[in-house]
Design goal:
Number of strands: 17
Bound molecules: pyridoxal-5'-phosphate
Largest sheet: 9 strands, mixed
Strand content: 15-25%
Shape: globular
Distance between the termini: 25 Å
Structural class: alpha/beta
């Protein structure tokens, strides 16, 4: 596909935004951030907002500025690199096992306090080699499986054995444990969600106690998400909560009934009105994902998305709906993280006005570097190597 040179027109009104696009309500975002910061203001547990739902430095800055934070949480080294420029304490709540990623973590440790989740001896060795090579010590949390059954060692002697190994390894500093209760986050029934989260936090804090009893360092006990922030965040012994989705929200968390507002949408344009009971918009699953269900339709009561294709959203309309070709629609994504990752910017709006455009550090920065190197090669004049 040839690259184009296009005149960039900065939209001043929502109606001028090219679709499909992500639209962010700055006021709703501000209220969500302030609300979460207020909850953790009381302590003793603190907030470590996860940046992976939004991947947007401007939002992360606002989360830190709101207070109650010990730092930020990331899922990838690319995210960590994006926020380490303005955050001095970053947790990668995920396993880093290859030499390049571990070297990048160790490079960040030179100016930012870095901590990484580990659940294997191979992970310990990779991170330790990178730390030694860079002449730094990288912080480590033992990742404990508290019921999600994703990563993590079991919350018993396996966790203590791994902690002991980390503690005796050059280039690493053992800081404690983490256990993400991801299985509890989406549970609709509050009582059941509380039970599952408390079981998980019981297992995690018991593991932390075992580490301390064995004479091992365990200052950090990190857990939590948007669905459990006020359960795990008040559980004795948990020191920080990694919630992320609360800032932007999605329709899935809307059904969990957490006290935050929907702050972003996918804006689309109706490109076809083939029948009285159906219209089609230009925002398919290249603009938003359906891994947590189809998106909801704003503004038109009774309208329902019935299908997403690559570039199409098919919408069933209620009787009498007057929407026509060229009109705008707003869809509420069911899952923030993968939807945001499909876009390059948020159009930040106040009412009908576009007040700013915030870049999203989507994807993987190593691919951006690879792309840059091929662009440069393509632009290199003949005869110049
Ligand atoms: C390890 C970890 N911690 C915290 C979170 C934050 O969860 P949420 O975005 O639901 O608040 C996630 C999300 O998937 C996660 O994987």
């Amino acid at each position: 596909m040839p690259s184009e040179t296009r005149r960039v027109v900065r939209p001043r009104l929502v109606s001028e935004i090219p679709t499909p696009a992500l639209v962010l309500d700055a006021a709703a975002l501000g209220r969500n951030i302030a609300r979460m910061a207020r909850f953790f203001n009381a302590g003793p547990c603190r907030l470590r907002p996860h940046v992976k739902p939004h991947k947007t430095p401007e939002i992360a800055r606002r989360q830190l500025a709101a207070g109650s934070c010990v730092g930020l949480t990331c899922a990838t080294v690319s995210e960590a690199e994006a926020v380490a420029a303005f955050c001095d304490d970053v947790l990668i709540a995920n396993e880093m096992v290859d030499a390049d990623k571990c070297a990048r973590v160790a490079a960040l440790q030179r100016h930012t306090r870095m901590t990484v989740a580990v659940d294997s001896i191979a992970g310990v060795e990779a991170l330790s080699a990178a730390g030694r090579a860079a002449g730094v010590r990288v912080g480590v949390l033992v990742d404990v499986n508290v019921g999600q059954n994703r990563c993590g060692v079991s919350p018993d002697t396996e966790a203590v054995d791994l902690a002991r190994r980390i503690s005796g390894t050059d280039g690493l500093t053992l800081r404690g444990v983490m256990g993400y209760e991801g299985h509890a986050q989406p549970i609709r029934d509050r009582r059941e969600r509380e039970e599952r989260a408390r079981d998980a936090m019981g297992a995690l804090t018991a593991t932390a106690d075992e580490l301390r009893a064995a004479g091992l360092a365990c200052d950090v006990v990190s857990a939590g998400g948007t669905g459990t922030f006020d359960i795990s965040g008040r559980f004795t012994g948990i020191t920080e909560i990694q919630a992320g989705s609360y800032a932007l929200m999605d329709s899935d968390y809307g059904e969990v009934r957490v006290p935050f507002e929907q702050a972003f949408w996918v804006l689309g344009t109706v490109i076809s009105r083939p029948s009285r009971d159906r219209c089609v918009a230009d925002c398919g699953h290249k603009a938003l994902t359906k891994d947590h269900g189809l998106p909801e339709v704003n503004w038109i009561a009774g309208a329902v998305v019935t299908a997403l294709n690559d570039e199409h959203a098919t919408i069933a309309l209620p009787p009498g709906a007057s929407i026509g070709v060229g009109d705008r629609i707003q869809l509420v994504p069911s899952h923030t993280d993968p939807t945001v990752n499909l876009h390059d910017v948020f159009y930040v709006v106040e009412g009908d006005r576009v007040v700013d455009i915030w870049p999203i550090e989507r994807g993987y920065s190593e691919q951006r570097s690879a792309r840059l190197s091929t662009d440069q090669r393509a632009g290199t004049p003949r005869g110049v190597s």
